[in-house]
């Protein structure tokens, strides 16, 4: 393809628009937008397929800016192509309440696919988006109906490549032979500490070759539009490998300080911007000045995208007639609906049923849902046999050439890559046709904290199957026994943390996790067997908390989760028999969900008048919210058979009873004893 | 070197001893010990220098088992060489209270250098140990005095290599040309999910070549002792690159199930163990049976190590005479003492001093301590200019050939590799001559959560300089604004979380962080300026909490940290002027340290009789521990100038006052109002 003056005008418009917005905000990163304007122009106009009027069109090409600090680039592009992002929005870059926050947020801005900025995340999200495309295509495409054939493009910088999460995702993408994934590496030799030679001297393309990627180097990313074009075109021809295009650019191209880290993260000076505008033939006195030719040109690209969607809509209408079952299923997924009546498959239990580990209960649920919710795509970070995350009949998602599965497979072997797995799941969820879940030990969800945070911030329905949830895992010891982990995720906004106590509660956890379209869930599951509780039902448990043992004239409420609820129930008997003390028990499998119940209900569960003792074999931090006294483990655990470990730390009916009595005694003198549900004021939301 | 029957006997002894211990515990991982027995035997007897009678000898070679689940290998070796680990200890493998927990813990077992098990950590720790050696050698070695010339050896498996943290550390080690680091990769094609071909098909050696490592492949790691020997010998000759030896082995070598994932993580069956013993010429009926020839042979190696230390002690004695200053300094470091009077360098501030961002206050401290505490080795994950972690006169720790620094440099450019940085710091701290600190944004310490957890569990004095600590960072927005982060680390045992409010508190944070030899510290620092408080002193702040504003007849206590303390003090005035309400203010820069104060003191800070309102611009989770009502931010923040963001969420004198009044009203009806310092029972520690 040939490129001319108009192209340069467009590219320079992106540059000055981005520089203007950063200067106007007096905050932001002008360097990357100015350096990557050429490749953006080529990619978006000559290769990408998208309709700015419908950012949700399923077969659009996906674009991820993994170096999210360069988001003024993306905002400029979205504006120029006619997304719902006005020049005024650009003028409010980095202001409270704007659609143009300091880093791109999927929930805030039309056209932003995933939230980026925390480095490396976008890279792994893109791998997830590419997996989702390959999988969705394998499920739905038919001869003559390439319903789903979009590409995923991503930009990333040196910072992303240094992050381990990108290594994990890159190795995964290479193994999976994701030919639909094209990454453009902004090789500008600059990171915040200065020249990358101070910390990052690896041979990037060789590294990506070792992962199984196709590698291309474009040496003049500042000017050689034809070479950029040729590289992307070449990448598209490689069907069995992801491609990385190393694009050597000059950060802050056009600035007096171009090529230095000074243009990375600070606004350019006024005289520098003026000189840039002069250099590029713009009026140095005008700000946010977009030549009409640029709007026109980008409008043409947008119109082509709109036409492509229209064509696709017709194709899909035809498809729905020829393949009514698949058509209905895809339409349902795109509407964000679960299959009618799916919840009937959730198992229920009676208290006479045998004790079962909640990881095993989870396995039963996943097995039962496997044939009913086809959009469930699972996996594990190399702990399949421990997390119990794989349905018996599942096929692995693998390149067919491996002989280990195929593209329609619904089980992903993530390898020992927790952070990568979580961020890939964010990408899977963002695609729009998949509900991802993935397993690891609860303790190692912490490795994925950066990505789980973005599940929450970006409103992704991602399910973290988190087994071996406490000292109850026993012999593996303190290195594997979570103490702080649940407190961490309970403190994370828009994240549901479940710690079910039995079968019905586990079903409740999955029920809420699956119907909550905009919230991730961490489901903490035991390694050891747990008894089925007498009063537990799915209906009760989906309120997040309920009365597990009611007792007339109770002197104390024991509130607990997961494996300790059963021990608390035993403690009720022990207290009665040994001390003639009457206690009641509340199971609180999910704080976030309980918090959302009406106050009246919450007070019926945690009534005024008697003190409350919390019991959980991990940090007490946060339990003060629901209790007057707390029994927990504010230290690391111990390696040994789990019953010995529980006994060591006194998580026994006797140990709980001792503390329950101390609680009753201690609170005798206070009147009234108010339930902690009563608060002086409401929190801002 | 030649190898014979005795060597095979030793190797098979390790195998059967490990299999016996795992079977006896009925829990554990026999596969790796059996597969890696040959290389261990060669490495420990023919190459490594260590004295089992003094595991702390500074010039010992370091050994790290990054695939820590294989720890029975290490326990067997430690026992056979005569470390303080008896056969009885091996019989108590994975039992409560034993010295042989399920994964190796540095604080529990003599001869264990670093805590491993969480995959990839040990790999990065080893990089830290190697950096420490190179740095310490550069500081102390003199002509004729190779005081510090040890190697760091590490074993790691497929799991470690899949983890991003290992990629980060490997890239760093290659950049740093760490010729003293030799890694042995247990290439056994097996991970928990089965054959590595399902998820891990990258070309590992090519990847390491791309990082700048020297690469060797030993194809028969089960039997070819000479090839193993030659590979390690070759690695030692390569002085300007770390070496990876890919050692192809058979997991569970000798078992009927060898080469399958079934021998990875479960005890071998009794009949399998019998057959192994028969195959290797052991009495199948005997357990924990060590031939005396093996003890003798390993005893000889141990004796050589003891002699080497003795020789070293003489060398060091001579060195101390010839280089008294350096000798004294090294002796001081080895004794774990800080330079006398160092604390006098900590800056103090008067309330009339200007407002300064606490990240800047931290910079001043690091600058002042730079010449006084030479063992302080700092760095940043590519945020030097933002974290302000570099002393002006600092030299970078870099290979001299880069022209960017030298081996004696005390500033490490970690690159954008937070997890790797943290785990490398654990290795630096474990070495014994360095106190490491490293900077990143507080929000991205979460990327390093896996390693920070091990700082705490392993008792490493590591300082996490964590700037941009709240919504106060402003424009970068919710992707960068911590909400859950401090709660997470406050819930982590043996971790000090500091959030200083001004200059004196920042000095106090560093004071306690530096004198706490067995505890890591997270120091949360503001981007924005903070006023110097009237009542703050280092002496008060080192108690973790103190009264910042006392008021006769106070009706409410405001308790706060960091940037909100100053706003609370303004709220006191506002409350008095606008509402005639009397309030007092407590600053609580470090919960962990405050918790350790005598109860009487704590009650003087948080007295009975009036309600307490906590104020912190992040999750309220955990604040119930110190307060009756909580004002916080249980949602994500917002992108904008920080004053606008604070105003949006009502963290203003007015917003605080409103809630203080609500708190007073709400608690009027309760008697007595007890300080939350009063508890019904003490927590287990
Ligand atoms: Ca860069
Ligand atoms: Ca392996």
Automatic annotation (TrEMBL), chains A, B:
<feature type="binding site">
    <location>
        <position position="158"/>
    </location>
    <ligand>
        <name>Mg(2+)</name>
    </ligand>
</feature>
<dbReference type="GO" id="GO:0004802">
    <property type="term" value="F:transketolase activity"/>
</dbReference>
<protein>
    <recommendedName>
        <fullName>Transketolase</fullName>
        <ecNumber>2.2.1.1</ecNumber>
    </recommendedName>
</protein>
<feature type="binding site">
    <location>
        <position position="264"/>
    </location>
    <ligand>
        <name>thiamine diphosphate</name>
    </ligand>
</feature>
<dbReference type="GO" id="GO:0005634">
    <property type="term" value="C:nucleus"/>
</dbReference>
<feature type="binding site">
    <location>
        <position position="159"/>
    </location>
    <ligand>
        <name>thiamine diphosphate</name>
    </ligand>
</feature>
<dbReference type="InterPro" id="IPR005474">
    <property type="entry name" value="Transketolase_N"/>
</dbReference>
<dbReference type="GO" id="GO:0046872">
    <property type="term" value="F:metal ion binding"/>
</dbReference>
<dbReference type="Pfam" id="PF02779">
    <property type="entry name" value="Transket_pyr"/>
</dbReference>
<feature type="binding site">
    <location>
        <position position="190"/>
    </location>
    <ligand>
        <name>Mg(2+)</name>
    </ligand>
</feature>
<dbReference type="InterPro" id="IPR055152">
    <property type="entry name" value="Transketolase-like_C_2"/>
</dbReference>
<dbReference type="InterPro" id="IPR033247">
    <property type="entry name" value="Transketolase_fam"/>
</dbReference>
<dbReference type="GO" id="GO:0005829">
    <property type="term" value="C:cytosol"/>
</dbReference>
<feature type="binding site">
    <location>
        <position position="188"/>
    </location>
    <ligand>
        <name>thiamine diphosphate</name>
    </ligand>
</feature>
<dbReference type="InterPro" id="IPR009014">
    <property type="entry name" value="Transketo_C/PFOR_II"/>
</dbReference>
<feature type="domain" description="Transketolase-like pyrimidine-binding">
    <location>
        <begin position="356"/>
        <end position="532"/>
    </location>
</feature>
<comment type="similarity">
    <text>Belongs to the transketolase family.</text>
</comment>
<comment type="subunit">
    <text>Homodimer.</text>
</comment>
<dbReference type="GO" id="GO:0006098">
    <property type="term" value="P:pentose-phosphate shunt"/>
</dbReference>
<feature type="binding site">
    <location>
        <position position="480"/>
    </location>
    <ligand>
        <name>substrate</name>
    </ligand>
</feature>
<feature type="active site" description="Proton donor">
    <location>
        <position position="418"/>
    </location>
</feature>
<dbReference type="InterPro" id="IPR005475">
    <property type="entry name" value="Transketolase-like_Pyr-bd"/>
</dbReference>
<dbReference type="InterPro" id="IPR020826">
    <property type="entry name" value="Transketolase_BS"/>
</dbReference>
<dbReference type="Pfam" id="PF00456">
    <property type="entry name" value="Transketolase_N"/>
</dbReference>
<feature type="binding site">
    <location>
        <position position="69"/>
    </location>
    <ligand>
        <name>thiamine diphosphate</name>
    </ligand>
</feature>
<dbReference type="InterPro" id="IPR005478">
    <property type="entry name" value="Transketolase_bac-like"/>
</dbReference>
<keyword id="KW-0460">Magnesium</keyword>
<feature type="binding site">
    <location>
        <position position="264"/>
    </location>
    <ligand>
        <name>substrate</name>
    </ligand>
</feature>
<feature type="binding site">
    <location>
        <begin position="117"/>
        <end position="119"/>
    </location>
    <ligand>
        <name>thiamine diphosphate</name>
    </ligand>
</feature>
<keyword id="KW-0106">Calcium</keyword>
<feature type="binding site">
    <location>
        <position position="476"/>
    </location>
    <ligand>
        <name>substrate</name>
    </ligand>
</feature>
<feature type="binding site">
    <location>
        <position position="359"/>
    </location>
    <ligand>
        <name>substrate</name>
    </ligand>
</feature>
<comment type="function">
    <text>Catalyzes the transfer of a two-carbon ketol group from a ketose donor to an aldose acceptor, via a covalent intermediate with the cofactor thiamine pyrophosphate.</text>
</comment>
<feature type="binding site">
    <location>
        <position position="188"/>
    </location>
    <ligand>
        <name>Mg(2+)</name>
    </ligand>
</feature>
<feature type="site" description="Important for catalytic activity">
    <location>
        <position position="264"/>
    </location>
</feature>
<feature type="binding site">
    <location>
        <position position="468"/>
    </location>
    <ligand>
        <name>substrate</name>
    </ligand>
</feature>
<keyword id="KW-0479">Metal-binding</keyword>
<dbReference type="Pfam" id="PF22613">
    <property type="entry name" value="Transketolase_C_1"/>
</dbReference>
<feature type="binding site">
    <location>
        <position position="386"/>
    </location>
    <ligand>
        <name>substrate</name>
    </ligand>
</feature>
<dbReference type="InterPro" id="IPR029061">
    <property type="entry name" value="THDP-binding"/>
</dbReference>
<feature type="binding site">
    <location>
        <position position="29"/>
    </location>
    <ligand>
        <name>substrate</name>
    </ligand>
</feature>
<feature type="binding site">
    <location>
        <position position="444"/>
    </location>
    <ligand>
        <name>thiamine diphosphate</name>
    </ligand>
</feature>
């Amino acid at each position: 393809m040939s490129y001319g003056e108009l192209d340069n005008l467009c590219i320079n418009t992106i540059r000055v628009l981005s520089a203007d917005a950063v200067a106007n905000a007096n905050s932001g990163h002008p360097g990357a937008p100015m350096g990557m304007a050429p490749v953006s122009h080529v990619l978006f106009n000559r290769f990408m397929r998208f309709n700015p009027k419908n950012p949700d069109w399923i077969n659009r090409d996906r674009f991820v800016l993994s170096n999210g600090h360069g988001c003024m680039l993306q905002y400029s592009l979205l504006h120029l192509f006619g997304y719902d992002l006005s020049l005024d929005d650009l003028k409010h870059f980095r202001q409270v309440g704007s659609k143009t926050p300091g880093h791109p947020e999927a929930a805030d801005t039309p056209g932003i696919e995933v939230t980026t900025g925390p480095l490396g995340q976008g890279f792994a999200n893109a791998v997830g988006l590419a997996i989702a495309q390959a999988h969705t295509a394998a499920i739905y495409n038919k001869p003559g109906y390439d319903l789903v054939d979009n590409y995923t493009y991503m930009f990333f910088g040196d910072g992303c490549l240094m992050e381990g999460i990108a290594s994990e995702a890159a190795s995964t993408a290479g193994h999976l032979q994701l030919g639909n994934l094209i990454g453009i590496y902004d090789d500008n030799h600059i990171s915040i500490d200065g020249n990358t030679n101070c910390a990052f001297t690896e041979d990037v393309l060789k590294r990506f070759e070792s992962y199984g990627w196709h590698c291309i180097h474009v040496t003049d990313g500042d000017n050689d539009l034809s070479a950029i074009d040729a590289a992307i075109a070449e990448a598209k021809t490689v069907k069995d490998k992801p491609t990385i295009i190393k694009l050597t650019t000059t950060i802050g191209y056009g600035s007096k300080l171009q090529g230095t880290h000074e243009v990375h993260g600070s606004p350019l000076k006024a005289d520098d911007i003026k000189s840039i505008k002069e250099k590029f033939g713009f009026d140095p006195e005008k700000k946010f000045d977009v030549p009409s030719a640029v709007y026109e040109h980008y409008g043409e690209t947008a119109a082509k995208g709109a036409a492509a969607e229209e064509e696709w809509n017709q194709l899909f209408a035809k498809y729905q007639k020829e393949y009514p079952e698949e058509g209905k299923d895809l339409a349902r997924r795109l509407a964000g609906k679960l299959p009618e009546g799916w919840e009937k498959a959730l198992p229920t239990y009676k208290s006479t049923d045998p004790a079962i580990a909640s990881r095993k209960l989870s396995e039963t649920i996943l097995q039962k849902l496997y044939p009913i919710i086809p959009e469930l795509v699972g996996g594990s970070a190399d702990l399949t046999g421990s997390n119990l995350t794989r349905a018996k009949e599942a096929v692995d998602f693998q390149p067919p050439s491996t002989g280990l599965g195929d593209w329609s497979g619904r089980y992903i072997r993530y390898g020992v890559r927790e952070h990568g797995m979580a961020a890939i799941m964010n990408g899977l969820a963002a695609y729009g046709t998949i509900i991802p879940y993935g397993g690891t030990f609860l303790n190692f969800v912490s490795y994925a904290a950066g990505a789980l945070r973005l599940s929450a911030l970006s409103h992704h329905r991602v399910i973290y199957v988190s087994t071996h949830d406490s000292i109850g895992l026993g012999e593996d010891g303190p290195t594997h026994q979570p103490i702080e982990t649940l407190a961490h995720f309970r403190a994370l906004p828009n994240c549901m943390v479940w710690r079910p106590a039995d079968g019905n509660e586990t079903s409740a956890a999955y029920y809420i996790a699956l119907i909550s379209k905009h919230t991730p869930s961490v489901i903490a599951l035991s390694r050891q067997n747990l008894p089925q509780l007498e009063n537990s039902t799915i209906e009760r448990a989906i309120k997040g908390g309920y009365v597990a043992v009611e007792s007339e004239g109770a002197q104390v409420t024991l509130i607990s989760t997961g494996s300790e609820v059963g021990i608390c129930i035993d403690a009720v008997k022990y207290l009665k028999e040994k001390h003639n003390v009457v206690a009641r028990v509340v199971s609180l499998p999910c704080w976030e969900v309980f918090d959302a119940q009406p106050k009246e209900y919450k007070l019926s569960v945690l009534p005024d008048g008697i003190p409350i003792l919390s019991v959980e074999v991990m940090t007490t931090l946060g339990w003060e919210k629901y209790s007057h006294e707390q029994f927990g483990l504010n230290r690391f655990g111990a390696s040994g058979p789990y019953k010995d470990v529980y006994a060591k730390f006194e998580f026994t009916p006797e140990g709980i009873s001792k503390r329950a009595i101390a609680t009753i005694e201690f609170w005798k003198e206070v009147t009234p004893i108010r339930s902690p549900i009563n608060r002086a004021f409401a929190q801002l939301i």
